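Worked example

This section walks through a single chain of length 281. The input is the sequence exactly as stored; nothing has been trimmed or padded.
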Amino acid sequence: MTATAIAADGVPADVETWRFGLHEIRTLTGADSEPRFVLTDLCKALSLSTVAKVAERIDSEDKGVSLIHTPGGVQRVTTVTEAGMYTVVLRSDKPEAKRFQHWVTREVLPAIRRHGGYLTPAAAEAALTDPDFIIRLATRLKEEQAARTQLEAEHAELEARVEADRPHTTLGRAVADSEGLALVKAVADVLTQEGIACNQADLFGWLRAHGWLCKAKGDMWNRPTKWALEKGYVRAVERTVPTSHGTAQRWTSKLTGTGQEDLIEGFTTGRYHLDEKGTQS
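Given that input, the structure is written out below as C-alpha coordinates.
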Protein backbone atom coordinates (compact mmCIF):
# COMPACT_ATOMS: atom_id res chain seq x y z
CA MET A 1 0.00 0.00 0.00
CA THR A 2 1.45 3.41 -1.01
CA ALA A 3 0.29 6.86 0.08
CA THR A 4 1.84 10.32 0.03
CA ALA A 5 3.23 12.35 2.89
CA ILE A 6 5.33 15.31 3.92
CA ALA A 7 8.28 14.01 5.94
CA ALA A 8 9.57 15.69 9.09
CA ASP A 9 12.16 17.62 7.06
CA GLY A 10 9.41 19.11 4.88
CA VAL A 11 10.10 17.12 1.69
CA PRO A 12 7.50 15.00 -0.16
CA ALA A 13 7.68 11.30 0.63
CA ASP A 14 6.06 8.02 -0.28
CA VAL A 15 4.43 5.94 2.44
CA GLU A 16 4.77 2.17 2.36
CA THR A 17 3.10 -0.27 4.72
CA TRP A 18 4.93 -3.41 5.82
CA ARG A 19 3.50 -6.32 7.77
CA PHE A 20 5.33 -7.70 10.80
CA GLY A 21 3.20 -10.53 12.16
CA LEU A 22 -0.16 -8.97 13.01
CA HIS A 23 1.24 -5.44 12.97
CA GLU A 24 1.54 -2.88 10.18
CA ILE A 25 4.69 -0.75 10.05
CA ARG A 26 4.57 2.42 7.94
CA THR A 27 7.71 3.95 6.46
CA LEU A 28 8.16 7.31 4.74
CA THR A 29 10.88 7.57 2.09
CA GLY A 30 11.69 10.89 0.45
CA ALA A 31 14.35 12.31 -1.87
CA ASP A 32 17.16 11.48 0.57
CA SER A 33 16.32 7.75 0.24
CA GLU A 34 16.38 7.45 4.02
CA PRO A 35 13.36 5.72 5.56
CA ARG A 36 11.47 7.19 8.48
CA PHE A 37 9.43 4.86 10.66
CA VAL A 38 6.10 5.76 12.26
CA LEU A 39 6.84 5.56 15.99
CA THR A 40 3.39 4.36 17.10
CA ASP A 41 3.68 1.43 14.68
CA LEU A 42 7.10 0.49 16.09
CA CYS A 43 5.82 0.65 19.67
CA LYS A 44 2.82 -1.56 18.90
CA ALA A 45 5.01 -4.16 17.18
CA LEU A 46 7.46 -4.19 20.11
CA SER A 47 4.75 -4.16 22.83
CA LEU A 48 5.88 -0.77 24.17
CA SER A 49 2.80 0.87 25.63
CA THR A 50 3.94 4.43 26.40
CA VAL A 51 4.83 6.06 23.08
CA ALA A 52 5.54 9.46 24.64
CA LYS A 53 8.17 8.04 27.01
CA VAL A 54 9.82 6.15 24.17
CA ALA A 55 9.93 9.36 22.12
CA GLU A 56 11.65 11.22 24.98
CA ARG A 57 14.58 8.79 24.82
CA ILE A 58 15.24 9.41 21.12
CA ASP A 59 17.67 12.17 20.11
CA SER A 60 15.95 15.23 18.65
CA GLU A 61 17.76 14.88 15.31
CA ASP A 62 16.38 11.35 14.94
CA LYS A 63 12.68 12.20 15.34
CA GLY A 64 10.12 14.63 13.99
CA VAL A 65 6.48 15.12 13.03
CA SER A 66 5.40 14.04 9.54
CA LEU A 67 2.10 14.53 7.73
CA ILE A 68 0.47 11.54 6.01
CA HIS A 69 -2.36 12.08 3.53
CA THR A 70 -5.14 9.53 4.11
CA PRO A 71 -8.70 9.20 2.73
CA GLY A 72 -9.90 10.65 6.03
CA GLY A 73 -7.61 13.67 5.89
CA VAL A 74 -4.09 14.60 6.96
CA GLN A 75 -2.68 12.59 9.86
CA ARG A 76 0.14 13.98 12.03
CA VAL A 77 2.51 11.23 13.18
CA THR A 78 5.83 11.09 14.98
CA THR A 79 8.45 9.47 12.77
CA VAL A 80 11.99 8.35 13.57
CA THR A 81 15.04 7.84 11.41
CA GLU A 82 16.81 4.51 11.01
CA ALA A 83 19.05 5.47 13.95
CA GLY A 84 15.95 6.31 15.99
CA MET A 85 14.39 2.97 15.06
CA TYR A 86 17.49 1.16 16.36
CA THR A 87 17.25 3.16 19.60
CA VAL A 88 13.68 1.92 20.08
CA VAL A 89 14.61 -1.71 19.33
CA LEU A 90 17.65 -1.73 21.62
CA ARG A 91 15.68 -0.24 24.51
CA SER A 92 13.07 -2.99 24.28
CA ASP A 93 13.61 -6.15 26.32
CA LYS A 94 10.63 -7.85 24.67
CA PRO A 95 11.34 -11.23 22.99
CA GLU A 96 10.03 -9.94 19.67
CA ALA A 97 12.66 -7.15 19.53
CA LYS A 98 15.41 -9.37 18.11
CA ARG A 99 13.02 -10.92 15.59
CA PHE A 100 11.86 -7.42 14.56
CA GLN A 101 15.44 -6.22 14.13
CA HIS A 102 16.27 -9.23 11.95
CA TRP A 103 13.13 -8.60 9.86
CA VAL A 104 13.71 -4.88 9.34
CA THR A 105 17.40 -5.27 8.46
CA ARG A 106 16.91 -8.31 6.21
CA GLU A 107 13.66 -7.38 4.46
CA VAL A 108 12.45 -3.82 4.89
CA LEU A 109 15.65 -1.78 4.50
CA PRO A 110 17.03 -3.82 1.55
CA ALA A 111 13.66 -3.53 -0.22
CA ILE A 112 13.63 0.25 0.24
CA ARG A 113 17.20 0.60 -1.06
CA ARG A 114 17.12 -2.10 -3.74
CA HIS A 115 16.92 0.39 -6.59
CA GLY A 116 19.30 2.97 -5.18
CA GLY A 117 17.71 6.39 -4.71
CA TYR A 118 14.14 7.60 -4.68
CA LEU A 119 13.15 10.55 -6.88
CA THR A 120 10.09 12.70 -6.33
CA PRO A 121 8.47 14.13 -9.49
CA ALA A 122 10.26 17.45 -8.89
CA ALA A 123 13.60 15.70 -8.50
CA ALA A 124 13.01 13.66 -11.66
CA GLU A 125 12.32 16.90 -13.58
CA ALA A 126 15.53 18.42 -12.22
CA ALA A 127 17.52 15.37 -13.29
CA LEU A 128 16.34 15.89 -16.88
CA THR A 129 16.89 19.65 -17.06
CA ASP A 130 19.94 20.27 -14.84
CA PRO A 131 23.13 18.32 -15.75
CA ASP A 132 24.74 19.21 -12.43
CA PHE A 133 21.81 17.77 -10.50
CA ILE A 134 22.91 14.15 -11.07
CA ILE A 135 26.46 15.02 -9.97
CA ARG A 136 25.16 16.59 -6.77
CA LEU A 137 22.81 13.66 -6.23
CA ALA A 138 25.61 11.12 -6.73
CA THR A 139 27.87 13.04 -4.34
CA ARG A 140 25.17 13.17 -1.69
CA LEU A 141 24.40 9.47 -2.18
CA LYS A 142 28.08 8.62 -1.66
CA GLU A 143 28.15 10.70 1.53
CA GLU A 144 24.95 9.07 2.78
CA GLN A 145 26.28 5.59 2.06
CA ALA A 146 29.44 6.40 4.03
CA ALA A 147 27.34 7.73 6.90
CA ARG A 148 25.12 4.64 6.77
CA THR A 149 28.17 2.34 6.87
CA GLN A 150 29.43 4.19 9.94
CA LEU A 151 25.98 4.02 11.56
CA GLU A 152 25.74 0.27 10.95
CA ALA A 153 29.22 -0.23 12.45
CA GLU A 154 28.26 1.84 15.51
CA HIS A 155 25.02 -0.11 15.81
CA ALA A 156 26.89 -3.44 15.70
CA GLU A 157 29.30 -2.18 18.36
CA LEU A 158 26.41 -0.96 20.54
CA GLU A 159 24.58 -4.26 20.17
CA ALA A 160 27.72 -6.17 21.20
CA ARG A 161 28.11 -3.88 24.22
CA VAL A 162 24.47 -4.39 25.21
CA GLU A 163 24.95 -8.16 25.04
CA ALA A 164 28.15 -7.95 27.10
CA ASP A 165 26.42 -5.75 29.69
CA ARG A 166 23.33 -7.97 29.91
CA PRO A 167 24.32 -9.49 33.33
CA HIS A 168 24.86 -5.97 34.71
CA THR A 169 21.56 -4.56 33.40
CA THR A 170 19.70 -7.67 34.54
CA LEU A 171 20.84 -6.98 38.11
CA GLY A 172 18.68 -3.88 38.11
CA ARG A 173 15.63 -6.14 38.21
CA ALA A 174 16.75 -7.68 41.52
CA VAL A 175 15.29 -6.04 44.61
CA ALA A 176 18.43 -4.58 46.20
CA ASP A 177 18.65 -2.43 49.31
CA SER A 178 20.43 0.91 49.62
CA GLU A 179 23.80 -0.87 49.91
CA GLY A 180 23.24 -2.93 46.78
CA LEU A 181 22.55 -6.14 48.71
CA ALA A 182 19.82 -8.51 47.53
CA LEU A 183 18.00 -11.41 49.14
CA VAL A 184 18.57 -14.86 47.68
CA LYS A 185 14.89 -14.95 46.70
CA ALA A 186 15.24 -11.74 44.66
CA VAL A 187 18.12 -13.19 42.64
CA ALA A 188 16.21 -16.45 42.16
CA ASP A 189 13.32 -14.39 40.75
CA VAL A 190 15.68 -12.67 38.29
CA LEU A 191 17.04 -16.04 37.14
CA THR A 192 13.46 -17.23 36.58
CA GLN A 193 12.79 -14.11 34.47
CA GLU A 194 15.87 -15.02 32.43
CA GLY A 195 14.35 -18.42 31.62
CA ILE A 196 16.11 -20.49 34.30
CA ALA A 197 13.58 -22.35 36.45
CA CYS A 198 14.80 -21.48 39.92
CA ASN A 199 13.12 -20.78 43.25
CA GLN A 200 14.51 -19.65 46.59
CA ALA A 201 15.02 -23.20 47.89
CA ASP A 202 16.84 -24.23 44.69
CA LEU A 203 19.27 -21.33 44.91
CA PHE A 204 19.88 -21.76 48.65
CA GLY A 205 20.67 -25.44 47.98
CA TRP A 206 23.09 -24.51 45.20
CA LEU A 207 24.81 -21.89 47.36
CA ARG A 208 25.32 -24.43 50.16
CA ALA A 209 26.52 -27.13 47.76
CA HIS A 210 29.07 -24.80 46.20
CA GLY A 211 30.55 -23.33 49.33
CA TRP A 212 28.87 -19.93 49.35
CA LEU A 213 26.74 -20.68 52.44
CA CYS A 214 27.40 -22.94 55.43
CA LYS A 215 25.84 -26.42 55.45
CA ALA A 216 26.19 -26.97 59.19
CA LYS A 217 22.88 -27.12 61.04
CA GLY A 218 22.34 -24.69 63.87
CA ASP A 219 23.40 -21.05 64.19
CA MET A 220 25.71 -21.24 61.16
CA TRP A 221 23.06 -22.66 58.79
CA ASN A 222 22.96 -20.54 55.61
CA ARG A 223 25.56 -18.11 56.97
CA PRO A 224 28.27 -16.94 54.51
CA THR A 225 31.35 -19.16 54.34
CA LYS A 226 34.84 -17.73 54.83
CA TRP A 227 35.47 -18.24 51.10
CA ALA A 228 32.32 -16.31 50.09
CA LEU A 229 33.14 -13.46 52.50
CA GLU A 230 36.70 -13.20 51.14
CA LYS A 231 35.40 -13.18 47.56
CA GLY A 232 32.94 -10.44 48.50
CA TYR A 233 29.99 -12.50 47.21
CA VAL A 234 27.84 -12.69 50.35
CA ARG A 235 27.38 -10.58 53.46
CA ALA A 236 25.65 -11.45 56.73
CA VAL A 237 23.23 -8.71 57.76
CA GLU A 238 22.06 -8.50 61.36
CA ARG A 239 18.45 -7.57 62.03
CA THR A 240 16.28 -7.22 65.12
CA VAL A 241 13.08 -9.27 65.23
CA PRO A 242 10.27 -9.21 67.80
CA THR A 243 9.81 -12.26 70.04
CA SER A 244 7.47 -13.23 72.85
CA HIS A 245 10.18 -12.08 75.29
CA GLY A 246 10.98 -8.79 73.55
CA THR A 247 13.43 -8.77 70.67
CA ALA A 248 16.22 -10.95 69.35
CA GLN A 249 19.04 -10.61 66.84
CA ARG A 250 18.87 -12.65 63.66
CA TRP A 251 21.21 -12.93 60.70
CA THR A 252 20.24 -12.88 57.04
CA SER A 253 22.67 -13.74 54.25
CA LYS A 254 22.44 -11.28 51.36
CA LEU A 255 24.20 -11.33 48.02
CA THR A 256 26.46 -8.40 47.18
CA GLY A 257 26.50 -6.77 43.75
CA THR A 258 29.56 -8.86 42.88
CA GLY A 259 27.83 -12.03 44.01
CA GLN A 260 24.64 -11.21 42.12
CA GLU A 261 26.63 -10.49 38.96
CA ASP A 262 28.61 -13.73 39.20
CA LEU A 263 25.50 -15.85 39.77
CA ILE A 264 23.39 -14.29 37.01
CA GLU A 265 26.24 -14.28 34.50
CA GLY A 266 27.18 -17.84 35.47
CA PHE A 267 23.69 -19.30 35.13
CA THR A 268 22.70 -17.35 32.00
CA THR A 269 25.90 -18.35 30.16
CA GLY A 270 25.82 -22.00 31.26
CA ARG A 271 28.88 -21.76 33.52
CA TYR A 272 26.68 -22.71 36.48
CA HIS A 273 23.89 -25.30 36.55
CA LEU A 274 21.32 -25.93 39.28
CA ASP A 275 21.79 -29.70 39.06
CA GLU A 276 25.53 -29.46 39.79
CA LYS A 277 26.76 -31.11 42.97
CA GLY A 278 29.93 -30.57 44.90
CA THR A 279 31.79 -27.85 46.76
CA GLN A 280 33.21 -24.64 45.37
CA SER A 281 36.98 -24.68 45.31
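What to look for: Residues 2-115 form one domain.
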